[in-house]
Design brief:
The protein contains 6 helices and 10 strands. It is an alpha/beta fold. It has a 4-stranded mixed sheet, covered by helices on one side. The protein has a 3-stranded mixed sheet with strand order 1-3-2, with helices on one face. It has a 3-stranded mixed sheet with strand order 8-10-9, covered by helices on one side. Strand 9 and strand 10 form a beta hairpin. The longest helix is centred in the middle third of the chain and has 28 residues.
Amino acid sequence: MGPMQIKEIIRSKRKTITLQVCDDATLIVKAPFKTGDDIIKQVINNHHKWLENRKKEILSRDTKYFKKKFVNGEGFLYLGQSYRLKLVNAHEPIEPLALNDGYFYLQENVIDRRDAFLAWYKKTAYEKISQRVSWYAQKRGFRYHQVKISNAQKQWGSCTHLGNLNFSWRLVMAAPVVIDYVVVHELVHLIEKNHFRSFWNKVQLIIPDYKKHRNWLKKNGYLLNL
């Protein structure tokens, strides 16, 4: 197996080097501004075995991840179902992107089609996830501050010490039962700040089969992406 291809090197004010393996088995390197290529190469060499294992894991997946091209007939996930894309004439009276009659309809003159989908997913994720958070909070007596939608790639949800609940927009691509698991997970973090047994016991009281949904995300979460 050959070395992992470097997709991008991102230099910033950060203090350490981070290696991020993408779902297409390529590598993104995040490094401080003044880090030389020789140092980056050394870090990659030091993590060769880990990178090789991650690449094997990705390439062995049953369903491969392909970056979206936003063309006619391409499938896009929403609430666990795949909907085909139809590009339509700009004169038709619809939003830049809309889900109707089992299809995503996208105006063909939209310049950045990914941005159109991203905006739709973020808006819809906020609506759907906020509804579920409110429902479970009222039913179980949880108190939270507000719901926010993030761009997180590896973290489905998080809970801050202020009571803010953050959820990745990608979560709205998953089935409702999976969304509910993540929602309950973060709501329980309002009272249990760790992942001790008491935390999982509380999650299980609300979502008895939470392990199935947690495992589904671990195995298939890479597919929830653009």
